[in-house]
Amino acid sequence: MSLSHKLRWSHGEATILSTAAMLADATFLVDGKPFKPFARAPWLGTVDDASIVGHLRVLAGDFVGLPFGTGGRTAGPNLPEWGSLLGQPATGTIHGPVAHREWSIVGGDDESVTLSLDYDPDSVVRKVERVITARKNAPALDFVMRIFARHKAPISAGLHPNFRMPENPGRLELKLDFDFGLTHPGQTAEGDPQEFESLSSVPRNGARVDMSHIPLSPRTDKNVQLCGARGPLTGTYLDEGMGFELDWDRDLLPTLMIWHTDGGIKGEPWNGQFRAVGLEPLASAFDLHTDVATGPNPINKRGIKTWVDLDPAKPLEIRHSVRAFAV
User: Fold this and answer.
1) Contact 59, 41 (CB under 8 A)
2) Model-wide pTM > 0.70
3) What does the alpha-carbon distance between residue 248 and residue 264 come to, in Å, rounded to a whole number?
4) Is it the case that residue 75 has pLDDT exceeding 60?
5) Domains of the chain, CATH where assigned
6) Reduced to 3 states, what is the DSSP secondary structure of residue 84?
7) What's the pLDDT tens digit per position in 21-45?
């Protein structure tokens, strides 16, 4: 059974669940007005099927992945450099134990909460802590994932903030500077280039789509990875006059994956109901097997690191934040 902790501060309130240490809900007060930028699955609180992975049962605003992804996909026929990498069989649950299991809430008050999760004895990871703190006198949340290792090793890692889609196409504007972008190798159509330079011109099915203004029309699912991210990402809800800034440690997580999902996932618990954009800072090769991320792949061959290094001598801290603003 999932437990919860509530944050209440001068500029908002938020609820964090023990399942997947999920940020289930958050309302920011911006110039005295409520603003809710995060996504929230319509089934949250109604699914108790243990066969459904933990973060999907409570899918909402923000969780973490360690290792990130799981593998078990197939590559498009025109991307031979990805073929053998995507074909590796899935192991474990997607995004690792942190995204599936029940965490312990070890302490908290109105402005901060600390959760902890022990990994299995055979894992390189010994323990993970997650601290979520309301920023004093600001409509913002600060997050820390602290990883304790048993021995030195590389591992894929990622953050998984999810933001709500507006109803009207193109009315959430995304801005981020980056070195180069790649479409997901499992979604790259034959004949399409995988690489692109601008989020406003992303290859898709022989044409180009503008992923700097979402949701796309017609509704579709599309994943891309922006490599060599520079500076924070901003998202602006053009019809609301409100926006958010997503900032993170780009030295550790140098890429950002955009998971644009607009009702296209079927089966339980999705049933075509979920609309959101995951804006996911990563040290990973898309959502593939951690062995793909830590071995040679087409991203790290270009100098973009796709893993983090664990060391038992010092816990690894990965930080990110979400700040709301008025336009």
Assistant:
1) yes
2) yes
3) 29
4) no
5) 4-326 (2.70.98.10)
6) helix
7) 999 999 999 999 999 999 999 999 8
